[in-house]
Amino acid sequence: MALGRYDYERRYRRRFWAGFAKFGLFAAVLLGVGLFAYQMGIEQLKGRDVTLREEISTLSRQKAELELLASQMQHAARTAEARAAELEARLQREVPSGELARLTGLVSERLKGGMDPNRLAFVIAQVQAVRNCQPAETKRFALATPLLKSGNRSTSFNNGAVTVSGEGQSSRNAQGNPESWFDPAQPVTIKIAGMGGKDTVAKGVLPLHQTVVIDNTEYRFTFAPGARSFVEVTADRCPFP
User: Which residue stretches does the UniProt record annotate as biased composition, category Polar residues (predicted)?
Assistant: First the structure.
């Protein structure tokens, strides 16, 4: 009986210590796995930290480069704006506009046409702001139409030195039929003829304005509708230049 009890207790102790050894081995394995996983996590964190630091360094460098580029572009934009303002101011100073541009164009046309620059300069220098002009003179004449071309269809100025005539489109009645007198709402053709000189033609809807120089005299004409079939002509006559 004593021997049996002894064997039972010894087997119990062996099972106890065997179970304890297995638990210890399992705990050691579990601890090892945990330590390995922890170490791996530390290494990954270190790797990510290094990567993040490199990315931050790269982004910081790119940010600095972009800021430098933006500063350079702003400087270039300010320089371009200043240059544009300077060119615009220079353009306004040097390029004629308005009446000066028109006069510059006329001078250029005369020079291209072969006029002597010295003669042109002399004519411009002789022009006076105050002019000794004759009083304006107003006359009228009947404008010729396709249905009425006979009779006196002109008038003259300065004792016949200048003759003015013209023609227009026939006016139409309520039925649409043409009449003898001209239609003032339609374009007309005015001819200014000097004795032995070249004719000047003005075209358009009345009123019209035309300036001509004949025999050292400048004529400034204004043509306006008058009584039915008539055109009123007002002429200023001044010495030229």
Answer: 162-178
